[in-house]
Amino acid sequence: MMSAKPASRPRGRPTADAAQARDEDNLADVDMDSALAFVARIDEYTVRTVLAEDNRQYEGRLIGDIAREEGRHPLDVMLDIAVRDELLTSFAPDVGHDDEKTLKLRAKVWTDDRTLIGASDAGAHIDMIDTFAFSTSVLQNGVRQYGVISLEEAVYQMTDRPARYFGLVDRGLLKVGYHADIVVFDPDTVGRGKTYMRYDVPGDNYRTYADATGIEQVFVNGVQILEKGEHSGALPGKVLRSGVDTYTVALDALREGRTADLVDA
């Protein structure tokens, strides 16, 4: 994220003071017009999860706030926290996920018939990205907190629409004869919990994880697998096979005539 600067390097090994001055100069020389400039705003990162006991005091706080409180450079604060955690700290940049202005814009996209609600990269970044909790985030922030989308519309957008788009046979609706895949939740409490590292990946590795709140029961193919956060041990699911559990859909199968005006005057 640092802008390229003309080479002007002195000969010989730089002194510690010169190296520090050059580093601070480079840190200040960030192109804030870049679409990815938020990555370089170290002070706006939140300390999401930590391991070292000495770092517990920083969990959930902004790097910038910690730096101002301790009279230190934000990057020094971040690096010290990471070193104490043996580089296993989870930091999150501010990408405007939860503010009202962003949610209002996002709601326009959610209800546009050219889009589907979702945030998956098929597990390519399980150790660093936590967008897997988009469904509970939509219900918590989009529906309950800001009211930018109705409960009924949100449920429809995350169940029937994707099922029809992917051509899932007899799924996506509560309907006689359909597979009973059901999530029972409390609209007043449903949401996403705190992000943390879960060590259940082969090779004793971890993935980012967040428990859901307000989910009372979950049924898969009519069999209850979850009640109040406890898994029953039942495994009634199956791998869906193309052409057996799916049907071919037309490219414009979901066109409903709803096109969001994505550019406000």
Q: Describe the strand arrangement of the main beta sheet, using strand numbers.
A: 3-6-7-8
Strands, count: 8
Strand and helix order: HEHHEHHHHEEEEEE
Strand content: 15-25%
Short précis:
It is built from 7 helices and 8 strands; from the N terminus they run αβααβααααββββββ.
Q: Secondary structure elements and their pairing?
A:
Layout: H1 16-28, E1 46-49, H2 63-70, H3 74-84, E2 90-92, H4 100-110, H5 134-145, H6 151-158, H7 160-165, E3 182-185, E4 191-201, E5 205-213, E6 215-220, E7 223-227, E8 230-231
Antiparallel strand pairs: 1-2, 3-6, 4-5, 6-7, 7-8
Helix pairs in contact: 2-3, 5-6
Give an overview of the whole structure:
The protein has helices at residues 16-28, 63-70, 74-84, 100-110, 134-145, 151-158, 160-165; strands at 46-49, 90-92, 182-185, 191-201, 205-213, 215-220, 223-227, 230-231. The chain is of the alpha+beta class. Strand 7 (223-227) and strand 8 form a beta hairpin. The longest helix is centred in the first third of the chain and has 13 residues, at 16-28.
Question: Any descriptors?
Answer:
single chain; 265 residues; alpha+beta; four-stranded antiparallel beta sheet; two-stranded antiparallel ribbon; 7 helices; 26% helix
